[in-house]
Amino acid sequence: MAEPSERAERTGRAEPSVLVLTRRGDREAGLVATLLRRAGVPVTRLDADAPGGVGDVLCTSDGVLEIAGARIRPTVTWHRHFSPRALPGCADPGGDALRRDAWAALVRQLPLLSQVSIGDQEPGQLAQLRQAASLGLRVPRTVVATDPRAAASALASGRTVVKALDRHYVEPSPGLLRWFPPLVCAPGRTRVLRGTAPGTPLVVQEYVPHDREIRLYLTGTEHHAFEVAKERPEDLWTRPDRVGVAAVATPPPALSAARALAEAFSLRYAAFDFLMQGDDPVFLELNVHGDWRWFERRAGVETVTRAMARTLGAAHRAAGGGVGRRLALLPFLGAGVS
């Protein structure tokens, strides 16, 4: 359900506001919204899985959005985890499909109402790898195929990694997530992801030996990195208690690579995965909706949360939003830009 700012609801005016498109369980968005509101930045949240449905929405061509009776003028649109799959179903299959498609279309176009948008551009894995290679970055040899075993033979590699072409989870019914974590396969023993239906296109990559694995977050002009220690790629999903996470200084070559990719795709936020061979990064993939709170908790920091709040707050002010209370926004949200 929408969480309109109290001022917009009280006066009926279209108040400048940060707009967050997500769902109720989004902890990252909740923490960032709390920081912003404390600093006087209005935040309006639209949750796909709100109890009783999303509610009435009215969108005008002049940039005004009305949600559950509150009128706002979005300054920044942050697309997180809003998915039509989370909407409750209705009895008519045709009408249900039309509604979900219509919501998907609306969410794709809502960022046009604001001066700044984050998370609405989501380049696919093949586009990411192709762009990275064109920038001179090292990437794993990769094949997408409906038959991973044949793909592994085409790679003529030793160990391989098999993973989903899109996200690592699906939502068969609202609120029920099913995960398909990556697999590392021994030479000659390439497997499909467990539970995959026949004919599903999957990513098959050569396994890249490495010294370290880095998860790097670019948030506006800031960057924060974590070193991740795990035995197998699927450990993040299947054995998270055995995964080690530490906040580390960002390796300069990885930072340069991430910034080049962010510029190429016009991204203001993304989570990047790199394998480090000595000082040389090998780019794996990026995620424009990548969560970070789990990494922060394991490392005992909240650097990315505050960086995102600073990024959204600064963009809100640059778009003419202003700050409701007389607070110095950046010091309040945590001084320092790395």
From TrEMBL:
Domain of life (superkingdom): Bacteria
Protein's recorded name: ATP-grasp domain-containing protein
